[in-house]
């Protein structure tokens, strides 16, 4: 319980003494409110360590760079453990995504329990609805991509997935009301073209399969824009709480989808096989932990750089993970792949320079307008 009493400072006593002509101080009713608690818990609240990436004394650029580095590093862990699991025929992408969301939700709750972060509730039904939409776009993007594998080769899916930045720029107009300048559209061409070239191959094309891939890209772009909408602005939610809600909502869709697309018997058989093998169990655990870090860092990156820049970095991340895979697994790399990676990297640098120059121009125009007004 809390006991409240009133108290007066010594300076107030001296003032009252002076008014009394140097005599005894007259004690008027106190004016200051002092709250005392007998609770055993400390009154001070420890600030959350996870959620919004806050590095004391660092600039926004340094925070964004740290988030991108963490995102890329966690992705390498995820890719490497994915390869280990795939090698042992654990090819259950939808069910594995469900496990990723389950692990992310558990890690979010553990973070709150350990006081690394503070739980927050959704402000209203509108915000909860936006989070639910975000979760369903994630689930649908995975389901549609997996469904496309029955009609097209994986290399084609990867090549067409490189067009996601263009979809993101379009959805930014619809969801965020942001229109990119023509220079931005031009810089997206080498980024998408290089990633497409690096995928390589000219597989047979199924129109229905291509439609599924583009639908998956559209869902992925919508997800990025919804992330920016929820992570930025006055009513922004911090990254770890957004992940906590999104992972919970997405599991509602992912589990039934996994049972339908991958079969309950096949899932049970593969899970039992992994549990029986200690090394595979460790790989699956590391994979799920890596997925949590990827999701969290992806949110933090979106919070700092926005939806479109995050998708551009996603294409660069593909180059980074491919290079890591070559170095670790000694995978063969073709000349076409090297050219594609180089074009993507150069395009991303061009995009970054273009955005930087645009921001400097906007800042200069704002300063000029303020000077004119004064």
Automatic annotation (TrEMBL):
> What keyword terms does UniProt attach to this protein?
Membrane, Transmembrane, Transmembrane helix
Name its cellular compartments. Membrane
InterPro entries cross-referenced by the UniProt entry? EmrE-like, Sugar_P_trans_dom, TPT_transporter
Q: Look up the record and report any one GO term of the cellular component aspect.
A: membrane
Q: What is its main location?
A: membrane
* Its membrane topology: Multi-pass membrane protein
Q: Does the keyword Transmembrane helix apply?
A: yes
Every Sugar phosphate transporter domain range: 66-351
Q: Which SUPFAM superfamilies match?
A: Multidrug resistance efflux transporter EmrE
Q: Where do the TM regions start and end?
A: 62-80, 92-110, 131-152, 158-175
Q: What name appears for this protein in its UniProt entry?
A: Sugar phosphate transporter domain-containing protein
